[in-house]
Amino acid sequence: MMDKQSAVSDEKMIAKLSPAEIYDRFFVPTFFRRFTDFVLEAGKVEKGQHVLDVGCGTGALSIAAAERVLPDGSVSGLDPNEEMLDVARNSDQPINWYDGSAVDIPFEAQTFDSVISQFAIMYVDDKPKALREMIRVLKPGGRLAILVPGTIDRSPGFSVAAELLHRLFGEEAAEGMRAPFQSGNPQYLREVCDAAGLHHAEIFTVTGAGRFDTPEDFMKVEGSCAWSLGGLLNEEQLDLLYEEANTAFRPFQNNDGSVTIDTPCLIIQATTG
Ligand SMILES: C[S@@+](CC[C@H](N)C(=O)[O-])C[C@H]1O[C@@H](n2cnc3c(N)ncnc32)[C@H](O)[C@@H]1O
Question: What are the domain boundaries of the chain?
Fold first, then answer.
């Protein structure tokens, strides 16, 4: 079987993939799949439950949930990006995939035992509305668990990436790296919860880690995605970034040459009354 991570250097193969396929093939195993257990635990996702994954992308969290709840339960994945959903539909799990936004969830009230989400709510403009929607579709006594990355200053690997981008290409490129981390402040999330009427929500930190075969691979995963660095930098700039990555991420290297990027995240956890 092809090693998904090391194949990040196969540029001809990458050129044939859509951004969502690149995300699924390279980002999910190195990063996103490594956080699913935190969310499933916080959401108390168990055998037989009916679960909704909001901002499911290509389905990393939905698939992990399906492994727990099927065959008696069900999993629905919701995302506004059709290209991500097309990749999700290739999963062999019998998950129901829906095109839609967190701010207008296309389900009746009190449908699910658990509503879960990872690395998605930070992209939603009206976060209190999204939280109200997620609570609306939960049954009484149902569980909500939402994970977002903590602020970038708490993640040295991503901070170094932003500094490197700033040094090489300026503020816009650095901002592109920092943007997904901007919601990860407990006080800000508390305000979002209060605005959604979720005064009893708990907010706590978990620390997961991305793992990439080489320092270069860490940046290649970002650089190969059109909505990440791939959309901001040209080929020449990306080559320079990959070269400089070898020095910049040396402090994060393990004995086998791989890099581990610790990433503290915040979880919002609540139970409906
Ligand atoms: C970084 S991906 C995370 C996907 C998935 N949860 C995972 O762990 O791989 C962010 C996802 O948030 C989705 N997203 C953006 N805006 C959204 C919205 N308003 N409602 C729901 N999902 C949204 C994007 O389409 C994308 O699939």
Answer: 8-271
pLDDT by residue (tens digit) across 136-160? 999 999 999 999 999 999 999 999 9
Q: Could you tell me the pTM of the whole model?
A: 0.94
Name the residue of 61, 103, 124, 132 whose CB sits within 8 Å of the most ligand 1 atoms, as the mutation to test its pocket: 124
CA 197 – CA 229 distance, rounded (Å): 36
pLDDT tens, position by position, 248-272: 999 999 999 999 999 999 999 999 9
**pLDDT number for residue 6:** 44
Q: Give the residue with greater pLDDT, 14 vs 111.
A: 111
Cα–ligand 1 centroid distance for 256 (angstroms): 33
Classified as helix, coil or strand, 76 is strand
Q: How far apart are CA 134 and CA 144, in angstroms?
A: 8
**8-271 maps to CATH 3.40.50.150:** yes
Could you give the CA distance from residue 51 to residue 115 in angstroms, rounded to a whole number? Answer: 6
Q: How far is the CA of 180 from the centre of ligand 1 (A)?
A: 11
